[in-house]
Amino acid sequence: MKAQGKDRTELIVEAEPGLIRAQGTTAEGREEWTLGIPVTVDGAVAAGTIVERLADCPADLYLLLQGSRLPWLDELLGQTALTWGEAVCSCGADGCPHASESMPAIRQRLAEEPLLMLALLGLPREELLGRVFGDWADSLPSGDAKLADGDLSSLEEKGKGGPSPGEWLAEAAQQGMLHEPGAPYREVAVHLKAVPAKDMPEEDWSGLLPKVTAARQVIRSIKTQTAARAKEQLKRVPPAAAGLASAPASAPASAPAPAPAPEKRT
Questions:
Q1: Of 36, 82, 119, 235, which sees the most CB atoms within 10 A?
Q2: What does the pLDDT read at residue 176?
Q3: Long-range pairs for 193-198 at CB < 8 Å and ≥24 separation?
Q4: Which residues contact 9 (CB under 8 A, 6 or more apart)?
Q5: What's 253's DSSP letter?
């Protein structure tokens, strides 16, 4: 939510129900001034309609969290009319130009960032996610719903002083980590053991290949040729790369004992 002006001043725009806050900072991050602009919303779309649409389409929720615009949401938000009140600036200067200079950027942000507009309409991101996830939990069978409530409660206990469950899930969705396997998945060890082709049980594929003559002999030939080809390719792979490190070589033979020193004669 930042914009940079010609004087290298960055504009940070935030919204809450009925109020826009804009903060001007230097490129070094030093605050210069802060605007507060009351906004009256006429013809606001019912929040329940937006929550219901997003709950029915998780892909749209994901796109919204990524900052993408949704045509149907743009159409709904376009039905609202904003009446801007008198801005109050922290600079306190007479004839303060900050409000008039910032308004184009603020309007652009509201048009380009649906989440900012939703926060202005009274549906901030945390509440939006909480209501959508709540709808999903309500749609589960009773047993699963209790489990989901328990999981959220445990998240709240672990996250006291930190992000809320909705914020945590939103960040996970933005980072594409909702489908990341957990630690137990990575603790699974798989041990593979090569089986000679001749020892593999034969399967009768003749029913699946009714038009192939001698189907069993053909399948046996394919298995044998594939195993032989794999064996040849394996020989070209370095043992370390293939994970087939050979047994440690025996210790080198000990060096021969040094010859005895010649006997001194007196």
A1: 119
A2: 64
A3: 196/227, 197/223, 197/224, 197/226, 197/227, 197/228
A4: 24, 25, 26, 27, 32
A5: P
Looking at residue 35, its amino acid is: L
Which pLDDT value is given to residue 170?
Answer: 65
As a whole number of angstroms, the distance between CA 160 and CA 157 comes to 6
Q: Which residues of 103-131 are buried (b: 16+ CB within 10 A; e: fewer)?
A: bebbeebbeebbbbbbbbbebbbeebbbb
Whole-angstrom Cα distance, residue 131 to residue 166? Answer: 9
Provide the pLDDT for residue 20: 93
Nearest to 115 by CA among 158, 69, 57: 69
What's the pTM?
0.51
Q: CB within 8 A of 90, min separation 6: which ones?
A: 33, 34, 35
The residue-averaged pLDDT of 93-122 equals: 89
Q: Which residues pair with 81 in a beta bridge?
A: 42
- Closest among 18, 5, 179, 150 to 84, alpha carbons compared: 18
Query: In the predicted model, is pLDDT for residue 248 greater than 50?
Result: no
Which residue is listed with tokens 């939103």? 170
pLDDT band at 181; cut points 50, 70, 90: low
Q: What percent of the chain has pLDDT over 90?
A: 12
Sign of CA dihedral 68, 74, 80, 84: positive
**Mean confidence (pLDDT) of the chain:** 74
pLDDT bucket at 93, cuts 50 / 70 / 90:
confident
Q: Phi, psi at residue 208, to the nearest 5°?
A: -85, -20
DSSP 117-169: HHHHTT--HHHHHHHHHHHHHHTS-HHHHHHHHHHHHHHHHHTTTS--HHHHH
Quick one: the chain helix, strand, coil %, rounded to 5?
A: 45, 15, 40
Token pair belonging to 68: 């993408």
